[in-house]
Specification:
The chain has 15 helices and 18 strands. By secondary structure, the chain is an alpha+beta fold. Among the domains are: 8-54 and 164-234 and 342-390, FAD/NAD(P)-binding domain (3-Layer(bba) Sandwich), CATH 3.50.50; 96-159 and 235-335, D-Amino Acid Oxidase, subunit A, domain 2 (D-Amino Acid Oxidase, Chain A, domain 2).
Length: 499
């Protein structure tokens, strides 16, 4: 288990087989697979777990239809097989969802090309789950969708999750197997010599600094990967932004794949945690990686324009947006000038001066990425990695004494006292934003950001974390500032830059 946050001092005397730097889904997957192999492993994260990309994805566990169109058949196959495994092993946290791809006059792809792609998609997944829906059925299932030029839709399935809870679930499972993890612990330097590695670490909460020793280090910091050396690949940070909308204004029961006529880019509209999510954009991120990513006014304009074009009677505005969310994808670049949406989404693993770095890839394939990284670090033989890829053994076991919601997609019901107690006791919450923006999504899903629960939250954090009145006031002020600046609704962008 994660339990209460550890201190650097209690970790310093250990001789680690592996230190993983980076607490997103890739790092959590590496820690879990290392622990599963019996390795003594520690994960360090400079912010909170899943603070970066892995709490801000499009929440989809999927193969990726567009990757087939780009010729990425192997990537799609691997992702679909992992999707099916996660659906089997985490049936509450990863859930199959119905997707609709509306077909319109004169728009590519048409019914038959898409039928061919979906047939291959299902074949790679080992299921048959697609069909054509006539226009009348589409309009019945998606009230308000523009009927002009609509020629029905293709229906297929993929899956949805809460990406941050998936990260935490991996860390909890790794902890059950002996893995350790520490948030707010920044690796300031890494070196390797004669088969041993040294990691200089600063605890950002206490200010303490010391050096940890390990047999191997895997740098899984995503968009930050080149900061620790080993610039073996060019990482292109791409920002994707989403809107969370009041479902009373935009009710959807299925996941819609809509093509923005402005640039031909797919955008998803889907039900998530009791609200409607719209996203994503895809553009180069030029802001500092040291601050949280945030949606721009132009990105909000872009997504609202799409919705109001596809749902002409809705007339969605900024007042209907509960919150926004932006994340930075660490994409391995193919070269200058390439359209961001056409960059490959596979991962890369490389070694430099004894340090293994892994970056890129997809949420869905985190386990396969982890196995590749462990092979590169010499901690897993290739034949054992191949065996692990093919294994049907369950990846997760039930958590003892945990409320049912911990292992389930929360569906917006996140103010249950038993659940909050368990999270505060077992999931290494350090700051209030850890709880309200990541362990739960109250800060994204409620217009008041959870203000209506302050009495309960104040009592629980006082009892379980030892926060007194001044600490609570400090944490609430910090949380409100973060939520307003990075998850709020930016004003309209006058220059209407592309998103």
């Amino acid at each position: 288990m994660l339990a209460k946050r550890a201190s650097l001092a209690e970790l310093a005397g250990e001789q680690w087989d592996l230190i993983v730097i980076g607490g997103g889904i890739t790092g959590a997957g590496v820690l879990l697979e290392a622990a599963r192999q019996g390795r003594k492993a520690l994960l360090l994260e400079q912010q909170d777990f899943a603070w970066g990309t892995s709490s801000r994805s499009s929440k989809m566990v999927h193969g990726g239809l567009r990757y087939i169109a780009q010729g990425e058949v192997r990537l799609t196959r691997d992702a679909l097989r992992e999707r099916e495994r996660l659906l089997r092993d985490l049936p509450g946290l990863v859930e199959r969802a119905q997707y609709l791809f509306p077909l319109r006059d004169g728009r590519f792809p048409g019914r038959w090309p898409l039928t061919a792609v979906l047939s291959l998609y299902d074949f790679l997944a080992g299921i048959r789950d697609h069909r054509f829906l006539p226009t009348a059925e589409v309009l019945m299932r998606v009230p308000g969708l523009d009927a002009a030029g609509l020629n029905g839709a293709m229906s297929y399935t993929d899956a949805l999750t809460d990406d941050c809870r998936l990260v935490v679930r991996c860390l909890l499972e790794a902890g059950r197997l002996g893995g350790r993890s520490l948030n707010y612990a920044r690796a300031t330097g890494v070196s390797a010599d004669n088969g041993r590695a040294r990691v200089d670490v600063t605890d950002l909460e206490s200010g303490d600094s010391l050096t940890l020793n390990a047999g191997a280090v895997i740098n899984a910091t995503g968009a930050w990967a080149n900061r620790l050396g080993g610039a073996g690949q060019r990482i292109r940070p791409l920002r994707g932004s989403h809107l969370f909308v009041d479902p009373a204004r935009l009710p959807v029961a299925d996941c819609l794949t809509l093509i923005n006529p402005r640039d031909g880019r797919p955008v998803f509209v889907f039900p998530w945690e009791g609200v409607t999510c719209v996203g994503t954009t895809d553009l180069d991120h030029g802001d500092s990686l040291d601050q949280e990513a945030r949606a721009s006014g132009a990105e909000v304009d872009y997504l609202l324009e799409l919705i109001n074009g596809q749902f002409p009677e809705v007339k969605l505005s900024r007042d209907d947006i509960l919150s926004t969310m932006a994340g930075v994808r660490p994409v391995i670049s193919a070269g200058e000038g390439k359209d961001p949406s056409k960059e490959r989404r596979d991962h890369a693993v490389w070694e430099d001066n004894g340090i293994v770095t892994v970056s890129g890839g997809k949420l869905t394939t985190f386990r396969l990425i982890a196995l590749d990284a462990l092979c590169a670090a010499g901690l897993l033989a290739p034949r054992d990695a191949r065996r692990a890829r093919r294994s049907n053994a369950p990846l997760f076991r039930p958590l003892p004494d945990a409320p049912e919601q911990v292992d389930h997609f929360l569906h917006g019901v996140q103010d249950d006292e038993a659940l909050l107690r368990w999270i505060l006791t077992h999931e290494a919450v350090v700051h209030l934003d850890d709880l309200l923006l990541r362990r739960t999504r109250l800060g994204l899903l409620r217009r008041d950001g959870g203000a209506g629960l302050t009495a309960l939250l104040r009592a629980l954090t006082g009892e379980l974390l030892g926060w007194d009145g001044p600490r609570w006031d400090q944490e609430w002020a910090r949380y409100e500032a973060i939520r307003e600046r990075f998850y709020g609704v930016p004003p309209a962008d006058r220059d209407r830059a592309a998103a």
